[in-house]
Design brief:
Distance between the termini: 40 Å
Oligomer: single chain
Strand content: under 5%
Number of strands: 0
Low-confidence stretches: none
Structural class: mainly alpha
Number of helices: 7
Shape: globular
Largest sheet: none
Helix content: 55-70%
Mean pLDDT: 90
Amino acid sequence: MSDLHLFIAGSLVLVWWSRKPLSKPGSHGFYRFFAWEAILGLLTLNHAVWGTDPYSPHQFTSWLLMLTSIALVILGVSTLKRDGAPDARRDDRSFYEFEKTTQLVSHGIFGYIRHPMYASLLALAWGAYFQDPSLPGTLLALSATVALWLTATTDERECLAYFGPEYAAYMQRTKRFIPFLL
């Protein structure tokens, strides 16, 4: 299968998986779709060189970022599913079921950063980029970064609307993506 066919097949899966968020432009899931597309572009662009020079600084950086991505998504999703009290009655058709939290989660990884899953996607995007840095890869990684920033800021507006002052106080105590920094 050619890279173009691989990208198109992956895009079709992402469109189907994101059909609800895409029907609600301006939602966090709407912007997240574009981050996923950019990451798919990076994976498609750089998959052929993965592991060809594992001790080079750029591939070492890549693997470190990808391992960080895995850790962040595991910690984030498990904490959110366990403690977020997801409830299907939270009426927002653009959310996945585990996102329909009714309890603000502010401990574990969420005690340091507000968006561990988006930070995971950032690490994945830049990890895929560092497998084989290039100008097209740079543009895709920057696109993913902008899309994830839009995703996070939109998610924060949605959380402020749902959780109110409790979420505003939480925002003051935590960083968006990187503990103690950003």
